[in-house]
């Protein structure tokens, strides 16, 4: 098990066994207004929608979570069954592990066995900036084919990489790499965050590129900073433990 594969397994283990919720959940501030006079029968309600030219039975997408280690295959299989059953979209976790180790491709590729209306491939921005144009095109083509993807998500995971003990916080050239991908591939590109959100300024800069969607990935729910805190604590790395806690 290489370092990336080991980290993937640790992320899931910590998420299951530790309290990694954000300190505040902004969804708690949302109150739905009750319509006491709807003037529509329940059988006439249609929750279906179109997103990135794909029809979903509900405006719901299972965001990319895992893959890249043996246990991840089973998790993605279960999620894929749900996505197929309800005809909603689904993404997989960062496919970096499979690029490093071909034997792990099936931990993501399992989703191809299911009739999912929208499958989303995934790679971290910290990885794409390190590839030259030829490597970038080859790697993106591979992860798209790996799951027969209908769209590609690029994770702006710089904050997570910074607070990760073995993180690779490479960021220079990210806009250029995204631009190359949008020009070389005829597939919708989604730019997403991993729990820290995307500001209006960053969204404005991204809007200048030919991307199809932005997944804000805002604060609330699972905190990857908290997950990295527990990893650093286990490693007795006080500096990264402090960063993750902050």
Please summarize what this structure is.
The chain has helices at 3-17, 70-86, 96-100, 106-109, 125-128, 133-147, 158-162, 174-184, 200-206, 224-234, 238-245; strands at 49-51, 54-56, 61-62, 89-91, 119-124, 151-156, 189-193, 213-215.
Give the helices and strands, then pairings.
Blueprint: H1 3-17, E1 49-51, E2 54-56, E3 61-62, H2 70-86, E4 89-91, H3 96-100, H4 106-109, E5 119-124, H5 125-128, H6 133-147, E6 151-156, H7 158-162, H8 174-184, E7 189-193, H9 200-206, E8 213-215, H10 224-234, H11 238-245
Parallel strand pairs: 3-4, 4-5, 5-6, 6-7, 7-8
Antiparallel strand pairs: 1-2
Helix pairs in contact: 1-10, 6-8, 10-11
Average pLDDT reading = 91
Q: Give the helix tally.
A: 11
Percent range of helical residues = 40-55%
Structural class per helix/strand content?
A: alpha/beta
Radius of gyration: 19 Å
Number of strands: 8
* Silhouette: globular
Q: Identify the CATH class.
A: Alpha Beta
Unreliable stretches covering 5 or more consecutive residues: none
The CATH superfamily appears as Aldolase class I
> Describe the biggest sheet?
6 strands, parallel
Assembly level? single chain
End-to-end C-alpha gap: 30 Å
- Estimate the strand proportion: 5-15%
Tally of individual domains: 1
| CATH fold-level label | TIM Barrel
N-to-C order of helices and strands:
HEEEHEHHEHHEHHEHEHH
Would you identify the CATH architecture? Alpha-Beta Barrel
Task: Identify the strand order in the major beta sheet.
Answer: 3-4-5-6-7-8
């Amino acid at each position: 098990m290489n370092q990336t594969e080991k980290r993937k397994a640790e992320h899931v283990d910590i998420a299951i066994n530790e309290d990694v919720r954000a300190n505040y959940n902004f969804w708690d501030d949302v109150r739905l207004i009750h319509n006491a006079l709807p003037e529509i029968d329940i059988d006439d309600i249609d929750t279906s929608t179109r997103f990135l030219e794909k029809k979903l039975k509900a405006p719901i997408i299972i965001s990319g979570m895992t893959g890249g280690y043996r246990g991840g295959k089973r998790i993605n299989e279960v999620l894929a069954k749900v996505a197929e059953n309800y005809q909603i979209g689904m993404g997989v976790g960062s496919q970096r592990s499979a690029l490093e180790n071909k034997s792990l491709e099936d931990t993501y590729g399992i989703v191809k066995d299911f009739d999912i209306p929208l499958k989303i491939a995934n790679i971290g921005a910290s990885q794409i900036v390190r590839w030259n144009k030829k490597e970038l095109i080859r790697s993106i083509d591979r992860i798209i084919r790996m799951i027969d993807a209908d769209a590609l998500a690029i994770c702006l995971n710089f904050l997570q990489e910074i607070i990760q003990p073995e993180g690779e916080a490479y960021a220079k050239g990210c806009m250029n790499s995204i631009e190359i991908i949008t020009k070389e591939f005829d597939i919708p590109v989604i730019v997403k965050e991993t729990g820290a959100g995307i500001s209006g300024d960053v969204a404005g800069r991204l809007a200048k590129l030919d991307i199809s969607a932005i997944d804000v990935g805002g604060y609330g729910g699972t905190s990857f900073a908290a997950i990295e805190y527990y990893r650093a604590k286990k490693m007795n790395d006080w500096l990264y433990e402090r960063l993750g806690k902050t």
